[in-house]
Amino acid sequence: MKYILWLVLLWPSFLFARDIESAPGEFVVRLKKNISVQTSSLHSLSQALGSSIKDTIPEQNIVVLKRASFENRDVALKILMQNSLVDIAEPNYVYRAHRTPNDPMFPQQWGFYNYGQTDADLTPGIRGMDIGALKAWDLTTGSKNIIVAVIDSGVDYYHPDLQGNLWTNQAEQNGKTGVDDDGNGVIDDIFGANFVDGAKPTGDPADDYGHGTHVSGTIGAQSFNGQGVAGTAWHVRILPVKFLNENGNGYLDSAIKAINYARKMGAKIYSNSWGGGGYSENLKQAIKMTHDEGGVFVASAGNDSTNNDETPEYPASYAVPNIIAVGSMNNRGRLSDFSNYGRYSVDVAAPGENILSTDLYGGYTILSGTSMAVPHVSGIAVLLWSKNPELKNTTIRNRIMSTTKNLLGGSRIRRGLVYAPAALQNSIMNPDPDDPRAWNNQPLHISSAHPYLNNTHQEFEVTIPGAKRIALYFSKFKTEVDLDKVELFNRAGTKVTEIFGRNDAEYSLPIDGDYVKIIFTSDGNVTDYGFDITKAAWE
């Protein structure tokens, strides 16, 4: 079956201006050789240049000029370059140290800096699909004034990459052993509390499952300490609040007590990489109390590949104004196959697939899940509050959501990939030229059987004359994971990508050229809906 699309090409041009920072109204100007900074009157030069002279660099015949800060920079440069005295005129650019951590495992943390390195599955990433940590760290690295409650399975509080950023209860640390010195209902809670047995809480939040330790490392592993990994926030206080047991399970009463404890101990951010159970008004009220006291509640969307709009996942789906529901993204800039989604119920995505972080007994490990996405968002909230401590919790939430980057291939969630530098500067991201949603598009009608049969082999072709690259839009896609797949090939016969699992309302990776070959195969076991391709984007 062949689809050949003959289209009249209209090549729109888009100009994406890069706003390079410079000192307002300042310009570095080299004078022509017949004019000497050393021998000329600065007053005369100032008049001739129509600008005040802030400084000189005589060895290069340079003057540093100051003009009105509200003047358009490009207009000022044009005026200066038209001056007969001027050889070169440039803005007084701002340069900043690029603060790359010396932690030896940092290059494996693609969620912070994705330069196209392979992940644990040896899948190459797509450059720039990360949270922008390097740029964010030039603006802030966090603050010890901010407490993040990791409500989870506890924390390995002897881990050398975490110890320096763990919260301590000064009243208990300096009090008497066996006494509830601060009267909070938990005895000797020096490093946090344990509510696994809700009726008998203890002051020992030691992790015996590893989940909470991994989450904590992504939030706030010590950075620039020459070991292990880096955290999103280099400076923070992590409050371990344990309610999940050694199997990763916990109960409603324990969850409520854990949240209430964290609130009483001054948490600003609540990191929640857990979910399940039914709707609970009591749990919702506990979360609402964190909102009433100005906290942000970050929650995982779930790992069932289901639509939270149709089947809510709690606590992420509660209608409380301070909740940020987080899905998982892979290193190719797409929502992870396992991640829950929802155009109204899942707010943002963050790196959550093959994430390296801290583990029990001072170790490190790679885990995947929306659980791993949540701490990236919790860490960004730390950075944002450390730079702007006056912001309200709902402003923090809205800032994180309104400054996201587009996920590649389309999105099944409210927003996109959280992007720390944009959140810190409250700047809206420019359109991504690699996003097929900004390209031309043409209707298509290519489908498998619904459901498809065992041992299917179908081939389709799409040709768009003159196209430089093509992306196919799957309005509906559901196949057996790993085994029943769509493979896309370019004109040279090179396989560009393969797609399986659940991928509704998403574009494929772009295929270079004007031609795509589609091959759909299934094995002899499970069958499912299959796929519908309803349009092609091209440029």
Count of separate DSSP helical elements: 10
Structural class: alpha/beta
Number of strands: 23
Q: What is the chains' assembly state?
A: single chain
The dominant shape is flat
CATH topology of the largest domain: Rossmann fold
CATH C-level label of the largest domain: Alpha Beta
CATH architecture group name of the largest domain: 3-Layer(aba) Sandwich
The CA-CA distance between the termini, in Å, is 24 Å
Q: What about the largest sheet?
A: 7 strands, parallel
- Radius of gyration over all CA atoms, rounded: 27 Å
- Domains, number: 3
How confident overall, as mean pLDDT?
91
- Percent of residues in helices comes to 10-25%
Which segments are poorly predicted (pLDDT under 50) over 5 or more consecutive residues?
Answer: 1-19
Q: Major sheet: order of its strands?
A: 7-8-6-9-10-11-12
Keywords: Hydrolase, Protease, Serine protease
Family: Belongs to the peptidase S8 family.
GO molecular function: serine-type endopeptidase activity
Domain Peptidase S8/S53: 144-409
